[in-house]
Design goal:
Order of helices and strands: HHHHHHHHHHHH
Number of helices: 12
Structural class: mainly alpha
Distance between the termini: 24 Å
Length: 266
């Protein structure tokens, strides 16, 4: 794992160059260009607010802002995972070059979506001001939460990208799993609204959701900072960080074992 991350750092100039090229290509020939960075999550938010905030009448105060604080980190995670899974299998033109570092490709997808996410944060702050939720000193916890989510996302992306080279159906499976996970993660709904199930108390049920779904802890941390303006719950977030280390170790092991096959299989 250390070797893989060290090599990634050594190729940081290539990583940044590919990410910048990807960002430019994403909105090339588009009239609105980088404005789509703000429009895409905003339009998604408006659709969900219409359905859950007006039609189903969610009882959550300032539901549009509540939704946006969970939607932005989820878009970063899901876009990275879905795009990163096929990042190696789709780039035969680069992998057939001599000594091209394959580990840069999944990281490029994650970095590109991370930049998009960071560019969307001013929109989140502006929406908070619109609802009268002013930024507080708790915003300093943005950095550690972002680091944990990025590392967790990168670890999963490496794992699926390496496997997808030989099993191309995996990219379609991941897409469907992401769509299912979206509704099982407290993005549209409030974690506190979960009823007690299977003989557990309501608090135990909520804790179970946090343990089973790492993104529930991540989304909850973003909401704690921006929506609830409090210090995030560190125990579930540290659990995600520990899980990320395990997943990254497994991912780099799989990646290293399959690295020599990439050029042949793609």
């Amino acid at each position: 794992m250390i070797r893989n991350l060290t090599e990634l750092y050594q190729y940081r100039a290539l990583l940044i160059a590919l990410s910048m090229r990807e960002l430019k290509a994403r909105y090339r020939a588009s009239v609105l260009g980088f404005l789509w960075t703000f429009l895409n999550p905003t339009l998604n938010m408006l659709v969900y607010v219409l359905v859950f905030g007006m039609v189903l009448r969610s009882s959550v105060p300032n539901y549009a802002y509540y939704l946006f604080t969970g939607l932005l980190p989820w878009i970063f995670f899901s876009s990275s995972l879905m795009g990163g899974t096929s990042s190696i299998s789709d780039r035969r033109d680069l992998l057939t070059k001599v000594r091209f570092p394959a580990q840069v490709l999944p990281a490029t997808v994650v970095l590109t979506n991370l930049i998009n996410f960071l560019l969307s944060l001013p929109l989140l702050l502006g929406l908070g001001l619109f609802f009268g939720v002013l930024p507080s000193w708790h915003i300093v916890f943005l950095v550690p939460v972002l680091l944990v989510q990025t590392f967790f996302t990168l670890a999963l992306t490496y794992f699926f990208a390496a496997l997808n080279v030989a099993f191309r159906d995996l990219q379609h499976i991941v897409t469907n799993l992401i769509q299912m996970a979206f509704f099982l993660t407290p993005v549209l709904w409030d974690l506190k609204s979960i009823p007690a199930i299977a003989g557990l108390t309501k608090e135990q049920t909520q804790e179970l959701v946090m343990r089973v779904n790492p993104m529930a802890s991540v989304v909850g941390s973003w909401r704690a900072i921006f929506y609830e303006q409090r210090v995030p719950d560190w125990q579930p977030l540290l659990t995600v960080a520990a899980l990320s280390l395990v997943v990254m170790w497994i991912s780099t092991w799989v990646f290293e074992r399959r690295r020599e096959e990439f050029a042949e299989l793609v």
